[in-house]
């Protein structure tokens, strides 16, 4: 993939998901053809050809795509509904709007802002929201609006209400770039968009504060990071991406934390890019990721 992502005009991405059965590929490719589309890439996966689930991602070019979207969607509904399939069709020339929530750690936030400025993430960033103010100046240096929403004490109702007021209708997905607050089930129900999180991969071994100190004391040899969708079950949502790096006995807790931050930045950036490019299909509590 090119280091600089160009949002291609007249290029659509079709995601198809449902019960596996004969004829699905022919139906989808035939539909694209009769709607004057030219397939650029096609990925598919079946978790069991006998009664399993089918997943497909098709990218195709169609001249004057914007004007043809309604017609193509009507054809998709007519063609795929009898097969019990669900589908989404997106115009890849329209970047997804990504809101970011952050606390005091800035490494994941700045990585996303930097990659966005370089044109490496196919998103717009309408806002960054934080329960602290230490990242405000950095965020504004990227010409992105910064909002401070304090969240003190055990009752997060007011803070979550303010965040909802800011993001509803303004973002297509949210990223918790080391936002150190537990998101309530009520918030997830109300926000109505996917929420992506990043955390170290010690869970559930070193739960709570100072995980890198605990890991150093335990003498771990691998550390890593996990990016996943947020659900009502804390840190148990469908995993999008993971990675690890080796460490050794000579490293302090601070060394582990620095190396862990590097992995967290890379893992979150990949997860965000794949989500923004419609490469991730959620299926129960896991994901299919077409790279």
Can you characterise this structure?
Helices cover 32% and strands 29% of the residues. It has 8 helices and 13 strands. The chain has helices at 24-34, 65-80, 107-117, 136-141, 157-167, 185-191, 211-218, 253-276; strands at 11-19, 38-46, 53-61, 86-91, 96-102, 123-130, 146-148, 173-176, 195-200, 222-229, 239-246, 280-283, 286-289. Strands 7-6-5-8-9-10-11 form a 7-stranded mixed β-sheet. The chain has a 4-stranded antiparallel β-sheet with strand order 2-3-1-4, with helices on one face. α1 runs antiparallel to α2, α3 packs across α8 and α7 (211-218) packs across α8 (253-276). It is globular and about 60 Å long.
The gist of it:
The protein is of the alpha/beta class and 291 residues long.
